[in-house]
Design goal:
The structure holds two protein chains of two kinds.
Chain A (H helix, E strand, L loop, with lengths): L3 E4 L2 E4 L5 E7 L5 E8 L3 E10 L2 E4 L6 E3 L9 E3 L8 E8 L8 E2 L3 E5 L1
Parallel strand pairs in A: 2-11
Antiparallel strand pairs in A: 1-3, 3-8, 4-5, 4-9, 5-6, 7-8, 9-10, 9-11
Chain B lengths: L2 E3 L4 E5 L4 E3 L2 E3 L5 E7 L5 E7 L5 E3 L5 E5 L4 E6 L8 E9 L2 E6 L3 E6 L1
Parallel strand pairs in B: 2-12
Antiparallel strand pairs in B: 1-4, 3-9, 5-6, 5-10, 7-8, 8-9, 10-11, 10-12
The chains are: A mainly beta, B mainly beta.
Chain lengths: 113, 113
């Protein structure tokens, strides 16, 4: 099992550009999430999903879109990148319901100039 | 929504000394509680979890944590710290059937020789 994979590992964007961060898991987990990590702020939840076709907003959803068309994939879209979105992004999956252990991907470091 | 406070941003301990990292949570129902560790430049790894039952839970790498409902706390402990324990530690809270997981801001642990 590859676990949770994320691409790309690094990305530099100009303000106003759009892009999609990819996330895939091969553990057949129902739940998936996106977090951003900024110094001194821990991990903040952007969006999450409890199954294919079901998504919801977390703490900091503005400027991001998600969709979940399959169990395996959970892409995060930045619609119009802003410098405030410079961060490290982590995707995570968990079995769900009574088992909320988060299995994290390796992260994507995004810089917006 | 639930929230987590980790009061200590940075802790320094000597190798071989005992360690306690504090975590306080806010949640109206029975929480699911977690401790994760992140080594520099790495993703997050689960140390231990509390779902129900025995309030003292054992984790990997010799760590343990105690759930105290009356104090809304879930402090992480280790009797003797090793240099390899230097990392950032995150407490997190969730709820059964809900993927809205909230993390604390983290505590950075430095281990002195």
């Amino acid at each position: 099992n590859a676990g949770v994979t994320q691409t790309p590992k690094f990305q530099v964007l100009k303000t106003g550009q759009s892009m999609t961060l990819q996330c895939a898991q091969d553990m057949n987990h129902e739940y998936m999430s996106w977090y951003r990590q900024d110094p001194g702020m821990g991990l903040r939840l952007i969006h999450y999903s409890v199954g294919a076709g079901i998504t919801d907003q977390g703490e900091v959803p503005n400027g991001y879109n998600v969709s979940r068309s399959t169990t395996e994939d959970f892409p995060l879209r930045l619609l119009s990148a802003a410098p405030s979105q410079t961060s490290v992004y982590f995707c995570a999956s968990s079995p769900g319901l009574a088992d909320l252990r988060q299995y994290f991907g390796p992260g994507t470091r995004l810089t917006v100039t | 929504a639930q929230s987590v406070t980790q009061p200590d941003i940075h802790i320094t301990v000597s190798e071989g000394a005992s360690l306690e990292l504090r975590c306080n949570y806010s949640y109206g129902a029975t929480p699911y509680l977690f401790w994760y560790v992140q080594s520099p430049g790495q993703g997050l790894q689960l140390l231990l979890k509390y779902f129900s039952g025995d309030t003292l839970v054992q984790g990997i790498k010799g760590f343990e944590a105690e759930f105290k409902r009356s104090q809304s706390s879930f402090n992480l402990r280790k009797p003797s710290v090793h240099w390899s324990d230097a990392a950032e530690y995150f407490c997190a809270v969730g709820a059964r059937g809900n993927n809205d997981m909230r993390f604390g801001a983290g505590t950075r642990l430095t281990v002195k020789p």
